[in-house]
Design brief:
β7 and β8 form a beta hairpin. This protein has helices spanning 53-56, 59-66, 74-84, 149-155, 173-183, 203-212; strands at residues 2-5, 11-15, 18-22, 45-47, 69-73, 89-92, 97-100, 103-109, 126-132, 135-139, 160-164, 187-191, 225-227. The chain is of the alpha/beta class. Helix content is 22%, strand content 27%. The model has no long low-confidence stretch (mean pLDDT 98).
Length: 228
């Protein structure tokens, strides 16, 4: 499995014979500039945690060019169907999941909000548990810690948890440690930080606090690929 980080919350996961793109905020993402061009991405699957512009990003254009299966909440799927003519979608809601030939995607709760870039309702925000190629990943999306993270940690043996740490719009470094204590993942990778001034953090201090608490934390640079 190869996982590439494009900055902010954008990830590419190559595993199980499929190319999966998560929250493809590419064109407007300053951390992705010079690293990747949205037009070069041809995923088989796009996972969208919610409808905010810094996650929805280039989804319509990439989906149209690639024909990708887009998995998100029901409102995101409907928007792509009705306004962008893309009907290769699966609309989920919190707690629901779907089996695919390459694995399983389950939508989880998230404490956040969700609206499309034009301000219209974007459905409930969420995260995903992705079971693929014998590994289990948790893609938290934008969220604060919530008590049910303990259920996720108990129900799944998480290999990697991608959690937001930038504060202001999501949980910050301190509260992300509380999330880690519930999730009990083998490895934690931070997302949703340092893209814009309000969410700049000291990633070395964040990683140090996790190590001191007995967690394996790994900060990925934009453009870096992790093989697991």
């Amino acid at each position: 499995m190869n996982i590439t980080y494009y900055g902010h919350s954008a990830l590419r996961i190559e595993a199980g014979g499929v190319d999966i793109l998560v929250d493809p905020f590419i064109s407007g993402n300053p951390l992705a500039k010079g690293i990747v061009d949205a037009g070069s991405l041809k995923p088989d699957v796009i996972l969208l945690t919610h409808a905010h512009g810094d996650h929805w990003g280039d989804t319509p254009e990439i989906a149209k060019a690639s024909g990708a299966l887009v998995i998100g909440n029901y409102e995101i799927a409907t928007r792509l169907n009705q306004q962008h003519g893309h009907d290769h979608t699966i609309g989920l809601n919190i707690g629901g999941g779907v089996d695919q030939p390459w694995g399983r995607v389950t939508m989880t709760h998230a404490l956040h909000s969700s609206s499309f870039p034009d301000g219209t309702y974007g459905g409930n925000p969420g995260g995903f548990v992705l079971e693929i190629e014998g590994k289990t990943l948790y893609l938290a999306g934008d969220t604060a810690p919530f008590a049910e993270m303990a259920w996720i940690g108990a129900d799944y043996a998480l290999d990697i948890a991608f959690i937001p740490v930038g504060d202001v719009f999501t949980m910050g470094p301190r509260s992300s440690l509380r999330a880690a204590q519930m999730l009990k993942a083998r490895r934690f990778i931070p997302i949703h930080y340092n893209t814009f001034p309000p969410i700049r953090i000291d990633t070395e201090a964040w990683a140090r606090s996790f190590a001191e608490a007995g967690h394996h934390a790994q900060v990925m640079a934009p453009g870096e690929t992790l093989s697991v």
